[in-house]
Amino acid sequence: MAIADLVKTTLGPKGMDKILQSTGRGRSVTVTNDGATILKSLHIDNAAAKVLVDISKVQDDEVGDGTTSVVVLAGELLREAEKLVAAKIHPMTIISGYRMASECARNALLQKVVDNKTNEEKFKSDLMKIAMTTLSSKILSQDKEHFAKLAVEAVMRLKGSTNLESIQIIKKPGGSLTDSFLDEGFILDKKIGLGQPKRIENAKILVANTAMDTDKVKIYGARVRVDSMAKVAEIEAAEKEKMREKVQKIIGHGINCFVNRQLIYNFPEELFADAGILAIEHADFDGIERLALVTGGEIASTFDNPESVKLGYCKLIEEIMIGEDKLIHFSGVAMGQACTIVLRGASFHVLDEAERSLHDALCVLSQTVNDSRVILGGGWPEMVMAKEVDELARKTPGKKSHAIEAFSRALLAIPTTIADNAGLDSADLVAKLRAEHHKEDSNAGIDVITGSVGDMAELGISESFKVKQAVLLSATEAAEMILRVDEIITCAPRRREDRM
Question: Where in the cell is it found (predicted)?
Answer without folding.
Answer: Cytoplasm
